[in-house]
Structures are given as structure tokens and as C-alpha cells.
Specification:
The chain is α+β, with helices and mostly antiparallel strands and 483 residues long. The chain has three domains: 261 residues, BirA Bifunctional Protein, domain 2 (2-Layer Sandwich); 118 residues, Anticodon-binding domain (Rossmann fold, 3-Layer(aba) Sandwich); 76 residues, C-terminal domain of ProRS (Translation Initiation Factor IF3, 2-Layer Sandwich), CATH 3.30.110.30. Helix content is 36%, strand content 27%. The strands form five sheets. It has a five-stranded mixed beta barrel. Strands 16-15-17-18-19 form a five-stranded mixed β-sheet, with helices on both faces. A three-stranded antiparallel β-sheet has the order 4-6-5. Helix 2 packs antiparallel against helix 6 and helix 2 crosses helix 8. It binds zinc ion.
Amino acid sequence: MQMSSREFNKDKENDFSSWYNTIIYAADLADIRYNVQGFVVHKPWSMKVFKKLYKLFETELEKYGHEPVSFPTVIPEDNFEVEKEHAEGFTPEVYWITKQGEHDMARRLALRPTSETAFYQMYNLWVKSHSDLPIKYYQSCTVFRNESETNPFMRGCEFMWIETHNVFANEKEARAQVEEDKKILEKCAEVMCLPFYFFKRPQWDKFAGAVETYATDIMLPDGKTLQFATTHYLGANFTKAFNVKYNDENGKEHSPHSTCFGPGIWRMMAALIATHGDNKGLVFPFALAPLQTIIIPIPKTGEEKNIEKYCMEIKEELEANGVECKVDDSTKTPGYKYNFWELKGVPLRIEIGAREAKEKTATIVRRDNRDKTTCKFSEMAGNVKETGAKLDKDLLKKAQDDLEDKVKTAKTKEEVGKALDAKCYAKTFICSTEKEGVKCSQELQAFTKGGKVRGELVGEKKVSGKCCVCGKTGAQVYIARQY
Ligand SMILES: [Zn+2]
């Protein structure tokens, strides 16, 4: 089911939730009518982008020495219980397989909610000596979580991601991997045109079983932050729990340190939709668009054949130069076609009328700001690629400027509440000891109706100040409402 953008009339700025839910089916990205609640059917228009997102991250991970593997979807319950904190943290979210044909199973199998306890079972067998390290493996897969409230690409019972599980000889190398994860994110985020904040999460709100958790956040137009990747320094918690050991050159035994990194491919789609779209529909970056250029013939009586032939020449020329394009030769009017492909977020449109066909020129129109340029056929492929790159650069700049405007400093919990109501992050101080931190952050969350401590911004100079709740000395943190 699709609609033209004449029918798509939603106010993104003031009614984001309705805008978002309507664009999902209006642009034919996904169908939520599958008859298991919380599980989504992905349509071609989103799958083409998902394939590019996976490729983007996989290529970057492999540049940094990660290698692909594929692990079973099921994890036996006894694996799951090895790391106590991890088991307690994840058990409420797990789907269990309890039957095999007609028979009850001797041990339950979990559908993986995350795969540490599958990987470390095998790392126990694979790691013997220092020469076996480091191990940097990743898998691209879906994971399963029992969620009551779901929303396509934001929160689902099954969603797409990549997970890396990395083992190192010592703490120093493992911590360097956290830095490297951030670098990988920076490179990929530039292609997605998405600016982000990289927070060190508070101790009382970290991944179950981790020593430290880092979250990659993007602010959506409704003022709620979306975490689209996490990286965890696990210390020796998982290697000790799974008895993963290695001998150094002198034969001395050590427990390796480890990390994991989860780029949330599914949530990146949500971030792309939410950040770049406008009231006419989606706007995809040129580098990741499901279709990069749409060619639209503007018919003129008597000239149809020439126009049609010239459109096909353009298509061949662009494809020969690596640009994904299509000619919309349907019987709809040009105006209808403009609206339709704008709704779908195709970054560039080429309009071809009788004059362009005769003079061998083309008019290129940008989706984001509707800027028009005209060029000769011989310059067209280069021009399309340049215009696409410029569009991506401008999308990133706009998103960066928006993000800078979305941080307000706050001294009191009242000021934090005001910043959140203005759809911003509040930059403030909160008690950093675990006991006081939990208490003050809970009080703040209740007072601000959902404001959560996202953490300390990595890379920002550490300063301390008065806790916005109790007035004692605390660390500088960012607060936001969140998805
Ligand atoms: Zn406090």
C-alpha cells in the first residue's frame, strides 16, 4: 500500500510520532501486520538500505582486522547462566525453546538476545596461547528480545544488528579497542550523515556483565535520544566465567580481557528516517539510498519517442558510471511522479523534456533543498555524483548544527526539566558514586518524567560541580528522555 505525497501531510516538527509511523507504511518500508505481535516484515525499500548499512559497517570492521563468523541462533540455558550478572540482566527478555518435536527438551534453548555466552563457550576451546590472541570476530544477524512496546526500527522483538566479540591479552589492548570502535562509528556516521554523542554510561546503568559501557546516541526531532550502538569493556568477567585462559611466552597463565561492540543496524534506519526526512517524506543520503536517481520524462505530443530514447541513454550512461537509477515511464503525470519519488526519499531527480532531449542536456533536482542545475550529457555522470556528494555533506552539516542547538546547561532539576521540555539534552552534574548516583538519578527521572542520565561525554574535559538534585559534588553528565 502506497500513497503519494499529496496525501502525505504530516508535521514532522510538531507531531513526530504520527509523522514517523505514517512514513513507514506510506513509503512502503515495512509492514507491521504480520500475525506475531512485535515482529516486522521488511519490504524492498528498506532492505536495499539495510544491505548498504551492513556493507558499510562490515567493510570498516574488516579494515580494522575484524573477521566474519556465524554462530547458532540458539544458546543453551547452562551457557546463559555462567555469567551471573549477565543472566540476571537478560533473563526477562529471553525467548525459550522448550520442545523438540513432541518431546520436552532436557535443557531449554534461548533464542540469542546477544551472543557473548555463545562466543565464549567456543573461545574457551580456541584460546590456549598468547599466539591465539587477539581474536576479533563479528557476526551480522538478528537477535530476539521479549518486548511489550514495539515500534519499527526502534524497538522490536527481533531486530538486525552486528555484534563483535573481541579477546585481548591484556587490559590495555582491550581498552584500545573501545577507542577503535568509536573511530569506526565516526567513519560510518559520516556516510550516514548522522552526528552522534559517545557517552560513558553511569556505573549503575551499564550492560549486564560489563566493567564499562559506552553508548552512541542521536537526538531525534521529538527530543528523545536514540541509542544506536553500544560498546562494552568486559574486563576479564566473561573470560574468567568461561574459563578462557592463555599461557604467555614464559608459560605463565592469564585471563584475557575482552570487549564487544554492537552497531544497531535496525536503529540506524530509524535515525536515518527521523533525522533527514521532512514534511514531504523521506530524504536518503546519496551514498545509502535505495535508489540514487530517478529519471522522469516530461511528455510532449509528437516528441514521446525522442524523449523516451534519451531517458534510456541517460540511464545507461549513469549506470556505466556506477550510479543506481531508474526511468519512471509509468502513465502517471510528471507532478504525481515528482511527489511520489520525493515521498520515497530518492536524493536526485532528472527531468527530461523535449528541449533537453533535443539539446542533449539534463536538469538535476536535489530532494533536500530542490536546487536545480542543468548540464550537458557529457558532464552528467560527474555532475550527478558531485551533486550527490554535496547533498550528503549538506545533510550532515544540517544535522550537526541541529545537534549543537540541542544542548542546554542546567544547574537544578527544574532547569533540567525545562531543557528536556524544549526537546534538548540537559548538561548538568549528578552524584557519581554508585549509591548516591542511583538515588539522585531516580529522583531526577521521576521529577522530569523520564529524563535519564545518558553519561559523561567521551572526549570532553572532566569537570565536577554541584549535583542538580542534592547539591553534593558530582560529575558532568548529559540527561535526556530516551527511546
Ligand atoms: Zn546527588
